[in-house]
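Feature request, filed as a ticket because there's no other form

It would be nice if the structure record came with a short human-readable summary line next to the tokens. Right now we just get the raw output. Example of a typical job, pasted below so the devs can see what we mean:
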Amino acid sequence: MNGIKLQDRLYLGLGRSARTIGRSADAYRPQGPFAPLDPTNRFLRLPATFVSAKGNPARTVAYGEALWHGIFDGSYTRVGDYLVMSAGIFFVASQAPLLPILCVRTNRTISVARPNMQSATADNAYGGYTAGQSSILMTNWPASVLGENRSSASATNLPTDQTIPYWEICMPAQAGITVSPGDIVTDDLGRTAIVAGSELTDLGWRISAKMATT
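Raw output as currently delivered:
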């Protein structure tokens, strides 16, 4: 019981700090795998601000750092909620008792689809997949999409070939949805990547995807 009261006091203190130094943010709670920032999912407006998760508020956040500490009243939010404000779009990754609220800053909006298996083996003129042959799993999800420190070579091995980059994607988990190797990820820039590996962690999905090239 004392732990619960202490947690409430902590959130109250964060809320007071946010009212002093924060800005207004709209909170959204996804209700399914499609369009989590649909206006019908907005449930609250609250003051919020975000600081580097590295623990030094005087330090400028460097490239490739997606984790931030959220300063706002966490009594109203839960893991998987989105906070949208002028500083960007964040999702709540962790609200562990008596610890800072860990959030991920998003920079892209992605959708995930799963290619359907070919039902016939002898009559298919084309053995690959097209957009019409895939099942949509998730659409319009703000996510952190950063370049991984690795790449691969093209299988054609031509002198003009460029290396193929990998993405590291962090996004909230959604009940009933599993992201698996082979799934197709598209983003708001029109790029496409193939999921090479996926891990469901306490902080949500951590996905490695190989960018598709033509």
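Something like this underneath would help us a lot:
The chain has two domains: 2-106, 108-211.
The first strand starts at residue 23 and ends at 28.
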